[in-house]
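Q: What would this complex look like in 3D?
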Amino acid sequence: MKTVGLIVEYNPFHNGHLLHLERSLRVSGADASVAVMSGPFTQRGEPALLSKRARAEMALAAGVDLVLELPVLYALQPAEWFAFGGASLLDATGVVSSLCFGSESGEIAPLEELASRMQGGESPAMREALKQALAEGLSFPAAYAKAASGQGGGDSAAAAALLGNPNDMLGLHYVLALRRLASGITPLAVRREQAGYHDAGLPAGGSIASATAVRAALARGEGGPGEAAPYLPPSSLAVLRREALAGRMLADGWEALAQPLLTALITRSPEELALVPGMDEGLEHRIAAALPRLPVPGTEALLSAIKTKRYTRTRLQRLLAHALLNHRGPLFGRDSLARGPRYIRVLGFSPKGRQLLKTMKKTAKLPVVVRAADFDHPQLGLDIRAAAVHASAFPSPGIREMYADYYAPPVTEF
Amino acid sequence: MKTVGLIVEYNPFHNGHLLHLERSLRVSGADASVAVMSGPFTQRGEPALLSKRARAEMALAAGVDLVLELPVLYALQPAEWFAFGGASLLDATGVVSSLCFGSESGEIAPLEELASRMQGGESPAMREALKQALAEGLSFPAAYAKAASGQGGGDSAAAAALLGNPNDMLGLHYVLALRRLASGITPLAVRREQAGYHDAGLPAGGSIASATAVRAALARGEGGPGEAAPYLPPSSLAVLRREALAGRMLADGWEALAQPLLTALITRSPEELALVPGMDEGLEHRIAAALPRLPVPGTEALLSAIKTKRYTRTRLQRLLAHALLNHRGPLFGRDSLARGPRYIRVLGFSPKGRQLLKTMKKTAKLPVVVRAADFDHPQLGLDIRAAAVHASAFPSPGIREMYADYYAPPVTEF
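A: Here is my prediction, written as structure tokens for the whole assembly.
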């Protein structure tokens, strides 16, 4: 079976994702698909709308054959490590021949060229150049393009325009990660339709909206899909309705975690806060000073209070997620991240996915974890904790949902 | 002014407290009263029903002249340190001549005698004897009495009966603390009326019920005083009604803090949990193992799951409070506790209390803190954090209530 790999969040799985899946299968000529999906927290540093299990179910129902979990250690990271974690897992399956990613440009050649100029990764010299370009006041994509191009000349302005597209930026990192892994997987860019990544509005008449717009509509929907319905495949709608009814939809996202988040921040001294991964440049003092001055005890209020030009919202949200989850220590350092995920966690599979898992018994380069209770690793420990904290914020929280990693087998019915 | 000192929780201030205040003034012949009150968390390890500010207001309205805060470092401790913290503060005012405590026996002589036999405190030898007596299966009061008596002979059975009364046990520790401080304050026992300390029922026809029974009635009262009304002075009722209406009454206690508590426990490894003060004998593993097996994600469910003969509910609740508040480190060790409170925090005062504060400018042995923002000490930092976490659990949480330590002056109108 020729198999295409995807790196996804499916928060939730919508028509745009369906289109990407279909195009990826076509472009790659694959008969089967593997998706590496972030778990309870997404790369933007937000708690996912639904459990990873429900999101895996949506993906399987829409035609994905095998859903793997991107460990939270990699999900809550900047593009470099998010991409490396995802690409590592696809590579480790030993069954994936191409990685298809949606991109604004739809072109792979400029990314391959930029990757070549970067000589395979972010060198210390490039990180220094990036720092300097940011200090000069350039936006992150412009600074990144300048630093990356600078290593071997090239058109920095064109690169800046390209990397201004968040998905092309991710794409560059997929290319870099696959080279770093000396992987046989071919990266393929698939042009994204219509809705921009961060678009908040629902396009009138169309069937494709951004996940951000879909979530915003769901938050307005008073527990049902509401205005979001036209932008979701029927299979997603069914899962969504069931989860919402069961009190397992986190429609107000971070606000539902405000009390434990604020408690985690209030009860740590600035010295302890400084241990949170990504807490740089005295941000711990900024947070400690902001807390007593917030207009209301909420996450949005906190984000507004601590946001500056230097800290994007995404970066701050990831930081808050790390603080909430008590992330700290060498596990979150570059050396640890560079070792890659240490297991392949299976969230669900189709009959074809079952065949892939059989093949993987021979081809996989990492242990395949079907039941979390059978495997022990600090990375997996983080995943189990993140899921428990996430599900504790559901409108009707339950222990079996919080610890579904222990209790529930992979999704095979959908 | 002759001034009597009280060590209290007022959770909330009820008719029994009023009776104790009146008797204390009469027995001591005092014209004024100072109460050292625990803050947002009580000695039983429970979040208080109302803010310390509202409870101070109740006390002042009922006739107490000066309300001081017992630092949370001492409030969340076994009798030995709770009593030492309270007695230290009364002693440090330099204006208190007697300490009146309610007791089941109403007699001071047996406590004085037992204190003499203990030669001023819990020696390492006595703690060893206590451990052994507990290992033999004796109840804590019986084991304590045996260990205390053993040091110099005496009637262990009579002492056991006496110390079986929780307030006599506290009384013993007041006597010990005053001796240890070489204080000029005279301890006086005042017999408690009717309701036992832990009695859960409301006595029909009477006007005095235990604080436990009053809180239980308030929890059933759907936001108002309900059945608890006959057991509260009108001034307490007024404060209670106002606070409940403003969404600042924690009627369901620990359950309102279940989400941050569970998050604090879930996100710590057993090694980190072991750093929580009072986490002994592998209890950290017991907690970690219990979490995924709870019937529901609540505090009561957790307490039931981890309770054993060796860990009383009170001890477990204090431990959970320490975990919630991220308490750890040398500040919580015996050496630190033995140094006593490092400041006198004023929560509120009457006109007579204002006179006492004037006198204290000359007599006080510790800095008198009227505005928390003006003083900096790790003990006070803990108090400010504890108040913020406590108030974040109110039905209508607000930042100004969470950080009232910064924003609100002492209570002077009531």
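A: To summarize the key features: Chain A touches chain B at residues 259-260, 262-264, 266-269, 272, 291-297, 324-326, 381, 385, 388-389, 392-393, 397-399, 402-403, 406-407 (CB under 8 Å). Residues 119-164 of chain A form one domain.
Q: Very helpful, thank you.
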